Amino acid sequence: MPPSPMLPKVQPSLWLSLNGRITRGTFVLYFYLPLLVLRLLTMVLDASSEGVGPITIREAISSAFGQGAVVFTPFAGPVTAVGVVVLIWPAVVGVVKRLHDLDFSGWLYPGYLAAGWGSIGIWLTFPESGVAKVPLALMVMAALWFAGFLFFVDGTRGPNGYGPDPLGRPESVEP
């Protein structure tokens, strides 16, 4: 049976290289779902492990950054910490390749992340301020829009500056 044009041949460059384009299906099946499952697995392993666990880490974060920072570490533990470090690169690769399919530069993603972490930093610095919640609320709305953009917008038809169309479609001709 010939391979589906929707799903690429599985090879290491799919997860390691920032070059090329991937479809929405590839993004979900090879990047989003596996990374989500691995992330949930690390949280379960941390929650069920003995020793340095979520409570100790939550207490350390609370004493260093205040109670507001604890919201971001519900299951933080050693397995989760290692898991996050291991999963960062495949997550970045998936988003960058999906942006390439939409004919956007992958540099849009670090800019988006910087804005997100900046808004979280403002909120953590001034947790009692109502004004500090505004950038955080705007960033949540931007995150929802960005996710919708990656998951639901069809890629560029035909080749673009980042490679050939992964679906093999010809370039659209406008009448």
Secondary structure: elements and pairs:
Blueprint: H1 13-16, H2 24-48, H3 54-65, H4 78-101, H5 108-125, H6 133-152
What does this structure look like?
There is one protein chain. With 175 residues, this protein is mainly alpha-helical. It has one domain. 59% of the residues lie in helices and 0% in strands. The chain contains six helices and no strands. The two termini are 37 Å apart.
Identify the notable features of this structure and list them briefly.
175 residues, mainly alpha, 59% helix
Rough outline: globular
Characterize the main sheet. Answer: none
H and E order:
HHHHHH
Work out the radius of gyration: 19 Å
List how many beta strands DSSP finds: 0
C-alpha termini separation:
37 Å
Number of domains: 1
Poorly predicted segments = none
Structural class: mainly alpha
Bin the helical content. Answer: 55-70%
Q: Which band does the percent of strand residues land in?
A: under 5%
